[in-house]
Amino acid sequence: MTEHILLIDDDQRLARMVGEFLRQSGYSVTHALNAEQGLSLLGSSSIDLVVLDLMLPDMDGLEVCRRIRALPTQAKRTPVLMLTAKGDPMDRIIGLEMGADDYLPKPFEPRELLARIRAILRRHGGAAPAALHMKPSLQFGTLEINPEARQAKLAGTLCDLTSYQFDLLLAMAERAGRVLSREQIMEAVRGRELEAFDRSIDVHMGRIRQAIEIDVKNPQRILTVRGVGYVFAKQQS
Q1: How far apart, in whole angstroms, are the C-alpha atoms of residue 155 and residue 205?
Q2: HEC-encoded secondary structure of the chain
Q3: Is 95 exposed, middle or buried, given 0-12, 13-18 or 19+ CB atoms closer than 10 A?
Q4: Does domain 130-232 have CATH number 1.10.10.10?
């Protein structure tokens, strides 16, 4: 089944170029010129991934991302790749905090965009190996992590996580008790390589903690090991 990508960008020349390249790479592409049109399409069509420009004429891309994550339907879990001008680190961090799965600074090489899209869709389950669906649920106190359903529940309530954040959580849970560096965590989910001074992993960990910790200010599940990285606690309540 052809995966459907929604491109929300007011740069028509760039959209034509990117759209043609992605179609040649085997994807179905729909282009929206503004945020309102993009949100409408997301609510009425089956979309597998959103490529979202940060600068739009009618609404900030960060606000669009926030609205996607607040949708009342399953569409709120659609992975989002955000395009940021000049690679401003603060734009990246805020975008991740708003629920974006990844970001790509402009200008970019179409092949890099394609690689990022493939990685996100793979993590989201579009090309997941069959062995993944054989993994049993993991239970840590009141926290249940179900690899087959790609869901985490806390005391029976579904945790609000992006596809990338779920994979980070699962990778750490499968290595419970081991101290992992940021590089090891990202490598475990086959994500993009860690960039120098990149804070994205810390932003994602903060979002995961908000979803699974009872007291975010006093985390008991994901612990920070100063100067090293993180450890997922084996014993949890």
Answers
A1: 20
A2: CCCEEEEECCCHHHHHHHHHHHHHCCCEEEEECCHHHHHHHHHHCCCCEEEEECCCCCCCHHHHHHHHHCCCCHHHHCCEEEEEECCCHHHHHHHHHCCCCEEEEECCCHHHHHHHHHHHHHHHCCCCCHHHHHCCCEEECCEEEECCCCEEEECCEECCCCHHHHHHHHHHHCCCCCEEEHHHHHHHCCCCCCCCCCCHHHHHHHHHHHHHCCCCCCCCCEEEECCCEEEECCCCC
A3: buried
A4: yes
**Are 4-124 and 130-232 equal in CATH topology?**
no
In the chain, where are the structural domains located?
A: 4-124, 130-232
d(CA 51, CA 143): 32
Q: Please give the CATH superfamily to which domain 4-124 belongs.
A: Response regulator (3.40.50.2300)
Mean pLDDT of 89-102: 80
- pLDDT bucket at 125, cuts 50 / 70 / 90: low
* Whether the Cβ atoms of residue 128 and residue 223 lie closer than 8 Å to each other: no
pLDDT digits (tens, 9 = 90+) for 150-187: 899 999 999 988 888 898 999 999 999 999 998 888 87
- How high does pLDDT run on average in the chain? 86
% of the chain exceeding 70 in pLDDT: 90
